[in-house]
Amino acid sequence: MKHMLIITLAALLGLCEGLPQKLAASVEIKQSESLPEKLGVSIMTFNTEWLLGSQPQVAELKQKGIWGLENKDTELKIEQQHQAVASVIARHAPDILCIQEVINEIAAKRLQQALQGKGLQYALHFLESRDTYLEQDVVFLTNKSSGHITDINVSHPIDPVYPSKCLILTCILNGEKTSIIGLHLKAVPTEPIAVAKREKQADAVVKQLKRLSTAGYTTLVLGDLNDWDPIVPDADSSKKATPTSKVLKKIKDYIAGGDDELVNSLKWVEPVGKRYTYDYKGSKTVLDHILLPVGWRNRVVGVTIDHDRPDGASDHWPVILELSW
Known about the structure:
alpha+beta; Deoxyribonuclease I, Chain A; 6-stranded mixed beta sheet; 31% helix; 28% strand; disordered N terminus
């Protein structure tokens, strides 16, 4: 009887000794469960320089008198470019991807397949642009593995003419009504005729921004704007990279008076020497931008311009914005 009592007491003491540890573990689990989940979203823009879909497509474009396709006129070269572009995208696997200079839906679907070959599943959001001569499209793709993006739709801008190469994506992003205006504005930053046209395109973008704001959307603007930011410096500090237009100024300050509504993500790229997305006549400079709402500044985790570009991918370097809620 005495021995049984001693054994019983020892067992009870053993249970009591383990109880604080179990209680502590329980408290620790509950504390970890109560912590809010940190939500991250990455957004990438990339001008893919005449991303084509097939050899017959190249022949049709050449018949129009379009030049610059000499290195893309075989099936092998077309496939090599798709694989090179897909490799760059796969390195970052962004949640939202906007690409420019995609030649029609056939090229967009071919890139989608190339990404699948690298283990990435992207949904394609395509509308043919109103650029009927060059046939260059702005395309969105969203990563199917991302659970933060729902209710996705794409549309053209309300202006019947400008910009001809523009696609607007609307969605619910982490519970917030969000829109992204993907652009490819008129090329040649300093040519007077091009500047005048790009100014008209910017005016149309401003109208679109106001419309989206009225509808309750928080809006980003991104793509190949073919112009410089007058406020945020890039790698080229010379006069060669000084804007002669007010394109970025208009878009960033789309509600006249007061402070800008949009901020250039370029300011988060350090050092300044890494701030270039294109080699314009020997000047390494930034023509590709991601402009985000001023109210999202505290959500910026980092901004990268990926200069590790495979041969044949593009003549631009992509910009990647990482956000956290």
